[in-house]
# Entry
Amino acid sequence: MSALWLIVSPASAREVDGMTFPEEATVGGAVLPLNGVGIRERYLIDIYAAGLYLPAHTSDAAHAIEDDVPKRIEMQFIYKHVTRQQAVDALQWRLVESPAAASIQDQVQLFVSWLGDFERGDQIVFDYVPGKGTSVTLKGASKGTMQGTSFMRAVWGIFLGEKPITEALKRGMLGR
# Structure
């Protein structure tokens, strides 16, 4: 006589500095595993954690940025209060440094207009779907979609480019 055992393990998540990142995210109908999580630190203070979701694990930043596949970056604020101006300053100047800066200037300005103050636990989610663009969700509210690949590559470059916002954040997101 044989017995059939069904083992069900609950979906797990990765916790980083009190922020929880699910092991999988669904973007454009594709289920994406968590590639890695890193922490953005400034003056020894943890500001936010960011998770990278890709169709297949990679430690290659160029592939993570350039590949035209569904993907997600999820930021969760750790610090108790980040003002709108601090968020604008940190994100806008990196987007302006992007090689595609001239072609996405209107998208950058629109994105910046959506930013507000952030409290511990607030999120910014960037979901890229090929052929559709990058959808932006702030604090659970969908704000809109930036068409094309240029905005996505500029955002991914903030975290994973040759001059990332911090090397430690990049290493964590790439699972190194």
About this structure: The chain has five helices and eleven strands. The mean pLDDT is 87. Residues 34-173 form a domain with the Chalcone isomerase fold (CATH 3.50.70.10).
